[in-house]
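QA checklist item 7 of 12: single-chain prediction sanity check.
[x] sequence parsed
[x] length recorded as 224
[x] structure emitted
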Amino acid sequence: MTSNATPPAAGLDNLFIGIAGLIGAGKSTLATAVGKHMGLDVYYEPVEDNEYLADFYRDTARYSFATQIYLLNRRFQQHQEIIWRGRPAIQDRTIYEDAIFAKMLSETGLMEPRDYRTYLGLFRHMSHFMCRPSCIIYLDVKPERSMERIKARARGVEQAIRLSYLEALYAEYERFVADISKRIPVIRVDWDQFRDVDEMATVIQREYMQANFLRQAPPWERTA
């Protein structure tokens, strides 16, 4: 987590934003920009210190349950810290998305049914101690583009990721967005329309302040 010294923008004292999207969508980069732009504390996805991640990509079926439990625990810790600190915050990947990965792993035979049931039971119990984000920003990045970005950033543990894996994830994300938007406002953003993260941060703040949820964020309109 990084604490942003910039005071929150007016009307954002209780703001809690979650950023959702495929691997390589640019969530961390956007979280940094939005956090700076709006004066929010930024909570990053636990990647660098994830001691299961390399094993997960090497032998997904064997390590799927342990990896998902690890991530769920870390994300829950972040979520509780956001609540305890009582400051406006933005989270790089929401705790709700962990269930997307677990469901996809179960449906593709990479997680045993009993492990998936155990995971869901734990998630449901944890959900009683969570507060909903004010809104979720969904970075809509197609699987092919996600694969390009994964290759470009060349993280060693991610080199085993296949396009079919990303396609299965993307299908689950589409179902997730359709479902979660019934309970939490969602700003859907086509990342390819906003190549400048500062411009995207401006659009997101405008969309939030105007309560323009549950639809595609419009393209950035430059002024002379």
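[x] summary fact logged: The radius of gyration is 17 Å.
[ ] second reviewer sign-off
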